[in-house]
């Protein structure tokens, strides 16, 4: 089919040309004396994205799932009690990993379309007088349902009852795209991946840890090898890795970090909020609903859009791809066939989002959804124009 494939899934995201070019280079010696000139600034700058001034960051040649496993196996011990909640496919996978790694999981199952139950967490923590709970887990952005949860509120709940549990955050589809403040929010282990807000191919797992987590790792009794903090620290401190690193991805990471700091994190967060508002305006104009049940849960990186009864979400995805060369996100697990998703994160602007909405409108009409042609695109245009004429936007 002529033209580009239009990628509007919530990851992997579109790769900027500068990043692609940075990775287009011959293989290099990852043991050369000059290699630390690349790697040591990378460690420091990834910490800047997480807003972690006091701990350290690990960069694993893995997906975000590998960084999840690294966090759990280095910081916790088998048999430790952990508090988790499940309200989407990715929070479910985190629970599944914790159980398989031998932790005692207190899992709060919530309605899909909601997020972390702060009040229930607070009750569980307040009742844990013996401090048996060793870690509390928060899925910051549940990609399957387009739900963002309040990490700072979980930290407040821990502090309110003086509970010493570690705070773990899955930020795979949030960090680098929506506000995240590791030090300020007292997050001990935060995980992300290269294929979302970092605008790279999949293949790098980021784990940013606090000093408290590093101390806990010294007494962890969990078996680990590939993901060992000890092995990474010994070599990372001199600019190297305990195994062959993905040198081209690291070169791309340098370019993506340069773009992130050029735009500025606060500007990136504002852009994602603006783009998400345009998508939400379109969904409302179509007469459809988001999977997120309330505005407080709305994600600025991905919108999961509920389809009317009788419309097969899988067919919507297939039709968009085959007919309009556009990749939209599919529904997963409990919402499979019931929703389609538009990813609006990473290297994206208003015109690209309008393209996603145009393709979605064409597809919905073709699949029998009764919407007014142009309604969603028009609503998004009005929202974007309104945002561009606000005093703050003019001053910028």
What would you note in describing this structure?
This protein is α/β, with parallel strands linked by helices. The chain folds into 2 domains: 6-12 and 264-395, Aspartate Aminotransferase, domain 1 (Alpha-Beta Complex); 19-262, Type I PLP-dependent aspartate aminotransferase-like (Major domain) (Aspartate Aminotransferase, domain 2), CATH 3.40.640.10. It has helices at 17-23, 35-50, 64-75, 89-100, 118-127, 151-160, 211-217, 229-236, 247-263, 265-286, 313-324, 350-366, 375-388, 391-395; strands spanning 6-8, 56-60, 81-86, 104-109, 133-139, 141-142, 147-148, 166-170, 189-193, 205-209, 289-290, 302-306, 326-330, 339-343. The longest helix has 22 residues, at 265-286. The radius of gyration is 21 Å and the shape is globular. Residues 391-396 have low confidence and may be disordered.
In summary, what is this structure?
This protein has 396 residues and is α/β, with parallel strands linked by helices. It has 14 helices and 14 strands.
- Count of strand segments: 14
Number of helices: 14
Distance from N terminus to C terminus (CA atoms, Å) equals 40 Å
- Please describe the biggest sheet, giving its number of strands, its sense, and whether it closes into a barrel: 7 strands, mixed
For the residues shown, what is the average pLDDT? Answer: 96
Q: How many distinct domains?
A: 2
CATH architecture field of the largest domain = 3-Layer(aba) Sandwich
Regions with little confidence, pLDDT below 50 for 5+ residues: 391-396
Provide the CATH superfamily of the largest domain.
Type I PLP-dependent aspartate aminotransferase-like (Major domain)
* Structural shape: globular
Order of helices and strands: EHHEHEHEHEEEHEEEHHHHEEHEEHHH
If you compute it from the alpha carbons, what radius of gyration comes out, rounded to the nearest whole angstrom? Answer: 21 Å
**CATH topology (level 3) name of the largest domain:** Aspartate Aminotransferase, domain 2
Helix share, percent: 40-55%
Q: DSSP strand (E) fraction?
A: 15-25%
CATH class of the largest domain: Alpha Beta
Strand order of the largest sheet: 2-10-9-8-5-3-4
Q: Classify the secondary structure makeup into a structural class.
A: alpha/beta
